[in-house]
């Protein structure tokens, strides 16, 4: 019965948004409340679950997304994105620029959360696409593939790190296996898949915040300044993370390092630097810069609400215990433990929406098998991580992040992002099984 309720709630959500044309945030609230009622959550607790879901997700994302939009705005308006786009095109050539975007996203995605890397790289994707008339999804798919794989498979991202600890795996070995599997998967799922004819033909109009007319060469900032400012958040997070790992937790400077290394603080520092280097030092009035920031926030206000609604729906499903019930029923299947771990994570991901929740829930269910010596713990981390990526749809905040930032229709989002996540998940599983069969035995 639980499966029927979850499936019905998802269909109801889709019907509200697609056919009745209800604003997605309102549709999420209605669906969350109804799902909570039918899944047996006490009436007095449903509102709290909705509020927690919104609060938890927004608390983690709102500062990064807002400051990221502002950073993207000034990088675009100042011509820095145009300068970087010229550099990429000159380095790789127009025919291979999608490889440049994929490589950049892979490097950026290792230390950064998916949402942070996404917000930072979207302006670059549109800048290259706009200036050189390259179809947006040829560039968007490599970026999304690289960020997804690093998020789902590679430490130091939260889910892989938690799984390594829970299974007693070796984080270094897991990282090496992750590279062996992840890089070919990114190549197949990003630059190559992105060249499918129907993706090339998608007519995508960027949000106004990214739709900037090209400047004259003499008006562009220098390449060094453009690259440094645009990638400053990445640089700071990598350096501060490495320094933090080598510091003693009891050191007086440890707390300061953790504070400065927080993604929200890094974004604030980066935006401050961008305001100075690309704005004030270029003789642009502070008031004009702030007007640009205000317009950037207006462009993403609905995005924040939609993601918040997805968080509410996810929390209701988690609080109902549906993920544990689904996983327990699947554990009865007699199949390869790596495939079982992937399958449990995949079903929970489709039902609940959150890749992290899917991975951690699946880990708790599959942990006794790993502890008994069944299945390699390092590969189990990657199998579950791959399963947690599959079929992102309307109950996932990432689905709406991609839809709204790329200004896609729901159908286009399914045909691009959802399809990509499913391909990455299946290829990741195949990579794990091949590695288990031919290298480890």
UniProtKB/TrEMBL annotation:
<dbReference type="GO" id="GO:0015128">
    <property type="term" value="F:gluconate transmembrane transporter activity"/>
</dbReference>
<keyword id="KW-0472">Membrane</keyword>
<dbReference type="Pfam" id="PF02447">
    <property type="entry name" value="GntP_permease"/>
</dbReference>
<feature type="transmembrane region" description="Helical">
    <location>
        <begin position="293"/>
        <end position="313"/>
    </location>
</feature>
<feature type="transmembrane region" description="Helical">
    <location>
        <begin position="339"/>
        <end position="367"/>
    </location>
</feature>
<feature type="transmembrane region" description="Helical">
    <location>
        <begin position="136"/>
        <end position="154"/>
    </location>
</feature>
<feature type="transmembrane region" description="Helical">
    <location>
        <begin position="223"/>
        <end position="244"/>
    </location>
</feature>
<dbReference type="GO" id="GO:0005886">
    <property type="term" value="C:plasma membrane"/>
</dbReference>
<protein>
    <submittedName>
        <fullName>Gluconate transporter</fullName>
    </submittedName>
</protein>
<keyword id="KW-1133">Transmembrane helix</keyword>
<keyword id="KW-0812">Transmembrane</keyword>
<feature type="transmembrane region" description="Helical">
    <location>
        <begin position="256"/>
        <end position="281"/>
    </location>
</feature>
<feature type="transmembrane region" description="Helical">
    <location>
        <begin position="414"/>
        <end position="440"/>
    </location>
</feature>
<keyword id="KW-1003">Cell membrane</keyword>
<feature type="transmembrane region" description="Helical">
    <location>
        <begin position="55"/>
        <end position="76"/>
    </location>
</feature>
<dbReference type="InterPro" id="IPR003474">
    <property type="entry name" value="Glcn_transporter"/>
</dbReference>
<comment type="similarity">
    <text>Belongs to the GntP permease family.</text>
</comment>
<keyword id="KW-0813">Transport</keyword>
<feature type="transmembrane region" description="Helical">
    <location>
        <begin position="174"/>
        <end position="193"/>
    </location>
</feature>
<feature type="transmembrane region" description="Helical">
    <location>
        <begin position="379"/>
        <end position="402"/>
    </location>
</feature>
<feature type="transmembrane region" description="Helical">
    <location>
        <begin position="96"/>
        <end position="129"/>
    </location>
</feature>
<feature type="transmembrane region" description="Helical">
    <location>
        <begin position="25"/>
        <end position="43"/>
    </location>
</feature>
